[in-house]
Amino acid sequence: MTDTIYLDYAATTPVDSRVLDAMLPYFNASFGNPSSVHRFGQRAEAAVDSARETVASILNCRPDEVIFTSCGSESDNLALRGAMLKGLERGQTWLLTSRAEHHAVSKTADQLEKHYGVQVEWLPVDAHGMVTPGAMRAAVCDRTALASVMLANNEIGTVNPVAELAVICHERGILFHTDAVQAAAYLDVDVAKLGVDMLSLGGHKFYGPKGIGALYVRKGTELIPHLTGGGQEFGLRAGTQNVPYIVGFAEAMRLAKEEREQRIAHIQPLRDQIIGRVLEEIPDAQLTGHPDQRLPNHASFVFKDVDGNLLLQLLDAAGFACSSGSACKTGNPEPSEVITALGLSRDWALGSLRVTLGVNSTAEQIDSFLKTLPALIEKARSLK
C-alpha cells in the first residue's frame, strides 16, 4: 500500500512512533495487573495514574474525573446510558441530541427510547449541520436529563458552539455531554472552557492506538455504570485496565496538544486548497459543513448525480484512500443520516466525499489528488 495516498485521517490515524515507544515496555517488562498489590501491580498502577494525570492536565480537570474506556463509542455509551438511566430514577425522561451525531450517540439514543422508556427529541441542524443555540433553547424542558451534541462532526467537519449550548442546558439544570472524538486532534478540549459535564475521547483519532478511549465525568455527575465487576475506574467501568494502551493514549494526547499549532499550520492550507479547487474546477460540486467553523484537516463535498461508493472505488483504484461520509457505514447505498439532516435532495446526497488530512499529508499528494479527481467524477457520472 506504499503507492496509495491516504486521505482518510478522520477514520483513523497511524500510531506515532513516539507513542509506540512509550507503550512497548508495558507489554512485557512491566506487564503487571494494576489491581495487584505486589510490585508488578504497583508499577502498572503507577503508569495508569501517571497517564490519568497527563490527560487530566490537558482537559483541565481532576484526575479522578478521567475514566478510561475501550474507545470513543464506549465513552459515548457510558455517558448517555449512564446519565439517562439515572435520570429515569428522578423522573427525567427526555434526551436531546441530533441526527447529525455519530452513531455511537444516535443508535444509543434509539435503543434507550425503544427499550428503556427514554423520550428522545432530535434537535434540528442548520444547512451546515450545526446545532444552534436557538434550537437548543427551544427544546429544553424541566424533564430533560441530558443533552448530547458533538464538538466537531466526523462526517462534515462542522464545529458546534458547545460552550453556548452547555450554558443553555445548565440554566435549566440539564447535564451536557459532548462527543469530542473527532475534535481532540485539533481543538482545545479544556472542559472548563467548554463548560461540559461529560466529554468523550478516542485514542486512534490523534495518532494513538485503537481500542482505547476516555470519558471525562465532572465530579458529582451521577451515572449508572453499564460494565460492572471489579470496581476499576472509580466504579464506573469495571475490567482490568489496558495499561500499554492507556499509556499510549496519554502520550498521543500530550503530543497532540504540544504540536497542535504546528500541525494546523501544516494541514489547513492544504485543506483550503482542496476546497477551493474542487468548488472551482468540478461542476455541480457543493461543500458540506460550515465554510469557516470546521476542522482544519477536513474537506467534505457532495457531487450531483454521483454514486459516492462508486467514486470511492475509482479513487482507490487510482491510489487514493478517501471516505464517503462516515467510515462506519461503508457500502450503505442510502445517504447517511448526517447528509440527510442537511436537507439535500437524493441526487446530491448520494454523492458524498470526505477528504481528511494528517501530519503525513504533503502538497505533492494533494496536487496529485486534485489532478485526478475531476476525471473520476466525470467517469462516475457516466457510469451512473
Task: Characterise the protein shown here.
The protein has 384 residues and is of the alpha/beta class. The chain folds into 2 domains: 5-13 and 260-383, Aspartate Aminotransferase, domain 1; 17-258, 3-Layer(aba) Sandwich (Aspartate Aminotransferase, domain 2), CATH 3.40.640.10. The chain is built from 13 helices and 12 strands. The chain has helices at 17-23, 39-59, 72-89, 103-116, 133-139, 162-171, 191-194, 243-258, 260-281, 308-317, 337-341, 346-349, 363-383; strands at residues 5-6, 66-69, 94-98, 119-123, 144-148, 175-179, 198-202, 213-217, 285-287, 298-303, 320-321, 352-356. α1 packs antiparallel against α8.
Strand order of the largest sheet: 2-8-7-6-5-3-4
Uncertain segments of ≥5 residues (pLDDT<50)? none
What is the CATH superfamily of the largest domain?
Type I PLP-dependent aspartate aminotransferase-like (Major domain)
Please give the count of helices: 13
Q: Rounded to an integer, what's the Rg over CA atoms? A: 21 Å
In CATH, the topology of the largest domain is named Aspartate Aminotransferase, domain 2
Largest sheet: 7 strands, mixed
CATH architecture of the largest domain: 3-Layer(aba) Sandwich
Oligomer: single chain
Query: What share of residues are in beta strands?
Result: 5-15%
